[in-house]
Design a protein that fits this description.
381 residues, 3 domains, six-stranded mixed beta sheet, Nucleotidyltransferase, domain 5, 6 strands, alpha/beta
Amino acid sequence: MSPAHAGERLSSDYVYQFFCGVYYRPGDKIPGFKIISDIRCELAERLKIGDLQKTLADSWKPYMKDTHVEFTDATCYESYIRYPTDVKLLWECCEWTYEQMKRVNKCIKGRMPRSKYAEIKDRCLGYQKSKKKTWKATQKLIGSLLYLLNKLNEQLNEIEVKATGKILFTKQYNDRRRTVKKVYSQQKKLHETGERSKGMIVSIDKSYLRPIVRGKEIKRVEFGAKVNMIQVDGINFIEHFSYDAFNEGIRLISSIRLHRDLFGKCTHVGADKIYATNKNRKYCTKNKIITSFVPKGKIVQQYQADTRKIKSLLSKERATRMEGSFGTEKNHYTLSKVKARTEATEKLWIFFGIHTANVVRIAQRIALKSAINGHDKTQAA
């Protein structure tokens, strides 16, 4: 739902008004077209995932069974950005810096300094239109873009000095300037040495995003938030949220601790083979937790047939039910491409998408339970 449609719904739906804490009489107009964005930003500032998930788990426990069984896995919720390349990123930095030079010069009534902006703009356009982009042509264009960006940064620094006392630069402007300068240093190092810096920026609009290497056939790299999840009776909870890549294999012990905090006892765990480290195996054995991990050692190693069946069931349930829930959230709860514009609101967007899917599942169980109770009462009468 777009902000415009959400605003119209807010002005007429008392349920929306009750949720957002605003009340309007029929016919009243909402003051300001950015009220939806303001509400989203305020909720993002107050978001406390741990406390909220504890409250939700306590409310949902009566409608959940087998709460001693946990499944865990990680997924990536992609952000809505264009696929980043070095040429695109450098050109966006040049374009933004040049536009800021024009705006500041207009305010102080100064003259625009000379540069090769128009010439390199035509070269970039021709490069993007070419079907075959050779490595040599790409490296040559990157070198020209780095030269242009460095020159534009120096020229904008001089203009900012002239504008001191005449223009008040915003925090957003200063943050973007720092991001552009960081992009220049990272890309220059990559171009000259071939070495990638730690924390490579892939978007100047969302400088907090990092490439998440997933190793999938369709998408080798994704750009968004990586989330380690636990699932109990089909209900998902966030265990760890990060925009930086991390190894989910080291998160198993903390996942079990979160499960115990939310639901108490944990006796069975289903997880992917990346979680089957020696440390995790020893922890689960010490705490008498049955896992889906394949036993180490020779195949002829004896263990009970019942244990073998449980391991197979845990592995199958995780691969189908949990992976299926990720697909449901991404396809039906606006998490395929997160369109939030800031780090905080993107985190809020993902949180609401995950738990809205949970609410729908719980609501179906409540309706089914009510229907069964109503039928039993009718039979008794």
